[in-house]
Amino acid sequence: xxxxxxxxxxxxxxxxxxxxxxxxxxxxxxxxxxxxxxxxxxxxxxxxxxxxxxxxxxxxxxxxxxxxxxxxxxxxxxxxxxxxxxxxxxxxxxxxxxxxxxxxxxxxxxxxxxxxxxxxxxxxxxxxxxxxxxxxxxxxxxxxxxxxxxxxxxxxxxxxxxxxxxxxxxxxxxxxxxxxxxxxxxxxxxxxxxxxxxxxxxxxxxxxxxxxxxxxxxxxxxxxxxxxxxxxxxxxxxxxxxxxxxxxxxxxxxxxxxxxxxxxxxxxxxxxxxxxxxxxxxxxxxxxxxxxxxxxxxxxxxxxxxxxxxxxxxxxxxxxxxxxx
Amino acid sequence: xxxxxxxxxxxxxxxxxxxxxxxxxxxxxxxxxxxxxxxxxxxxxxxxxxxxxxxxxxxxxxxxxxxxxxxxxxxxxxxxxxxxxxxxxxxxxxxxxxxxxxxxxxxxxxxxxxxxxxxxxxxxxxxxxxxxxxxxxxxxxxxxxxxxxxxxxxxxxxxxxxxxxxxxxxxxxxxxxxxxxxxxxxxxxxxxxxxxxxxxxxxxxxxxxxxxxxxxxxxxxxxxxxxxxxxxxxxxxxxxxxxxxxxxxxxxxxxxxxxxxxxxxxxxxxxxxxxxxxxxxxxxxxxxxxxxxxxxxxxxxxxxxxxxxxxxxxxxxxxxxxxxx
Lengths: 325, 325
Fold this sequence. Notes:
The structure is a homodimer. With about 325 residues, chain A is of the alpha/beta class. Chain A has two domains: about 5-50 and about 150-325, Rossmann fold; about 50-145, Rossmann fold. The first copy, chain A, is about 45% helix and about 15% strand. In chain A, the strands form two sheets. Chain A has a six-stranded mixed sheet, sandwiched between helices. In chain A, helix 6 links the parallel strand 4 (about 95-100) and strand 5. The termini of chain A are far apart. Chains A and B meet through helix 12 and helix 14 of A and helix 12 and helix 14 of B. Chains A, B: Belongs to the serine/threonine dehydratase family. Chains A, B: One of its GO terms (biological process) is D-serine biosynthetic process.
């Protein structure tokens, strides 16, 4: 079970390897949001998303022996790149199971980072969990799950340690922290870090319309599933349901979920381009979209949106600019 | 005359107001550059460019009386926004003289930051210096020149202090520091800061083809002019000639200039999008283009490119992605 001690230990292992990402802001965005808005730019993390933190945390926690046998991960793309980069830096081989419809950029980057990529069909009979388990068994590889894994949650939690410190430097001690949420690894890691370091900063998970399993699960008090598992441009945060490990943490520590539309995510991407000079993917812009376009569902004079990733294909980014910039 | 003491004093005035921008990198870019490549992401500075540093430094150094009378600046856009934002924060009015062909985004932002914008024709009879002087005299406004002004150079120099510190943290003590160069305010400020703090980091000014006044002036040992004053997409770094104050500093401290093409700047923008998740304007990407596409003209095992700004119109950015991403 991930604790603040584990998160601090992960932060020590990540020091000098993960980037301390900046907390950005713009008066133009404050005006739209109707309050002070800060954006934690995790798109500037190595491999273009926060997933590098969890990947590094998990790989660096392995025994020497396990590292030598190598690791395996399943991922729609960002966890894939995070694990691949971390494995490479530790001299471990990595096999990554990815959906065939993941953005080309993510598949190619994962290969270029030295991992062996195995594609599977999201709509097919075999789940990615099953494909992953089969490979892991065969080669003695250690499976690094994308979110239901204590060392991964601890790694993502290091982002929360930075948020606590950076918010304090801005004079923010009470605010909601909007976090794009798939399986809940980042949301639960940040929530645990904030519980210990900045208890008046509260996580609110953000999801795209039609894939709001966490929001519905939090409302119901028990795990709910998404009816469908693909078909959103917010590919980074599509998961069937909250994790078994993450959900109890989310339940205990997070506020209600927020739901945004794909169009709002695209508009947020265009505004992040214009006002912050950062590149966000749709799933990475959901939290910013919630802050900008759903201000009435948010409490407080300041809000922090964690912009979780920027691995977007150029064509989709051009479309966001053509429509909304 | 700007000294390291003035730069340190400017850093103290900027503390908590200007952003410490991150030093980014990507193994994919290292491979193209053939060495370790670090990008100082000044596009993430307030107002989208390093010019906020010089604007804040100059406005914060004014007497109370002068602040009350207000300030005036001439600028193709980034200095305009930097001065406008700094003036607003200090409660001073700002008049900004801008070329009519500056990017719409820069003109609009300057207005939105509360400044009065006066447009002039770059090809017209009256120089921007003359327009600026006329306004300054009329209203008792203090003219804040874009580069030939010691407090502006001191402000830009704070970027050099950060580079010295961040390079040391990366283990880099000897490298060339590529800086996009218009009138030379940033190049000379960084050069002065590095002279005092990291003498084995050496500035190399970077300019677009056809507007290489600094490169030719450095080679000749005396000031040379550009034949033309407009007509490049690198609008941020087009100036008629090096400054009277900046040129002696550049001469004493910088290595030879580097010249890149517009196409190379556009390709660098696309690679910064793909690999660093930052938005650069063409003039802000020239240094990165030099590092990526002219490695044979650069010395050493590591290179630092200062990515000076990201205020690019969406249409031009889309074009860069469509062609090169």
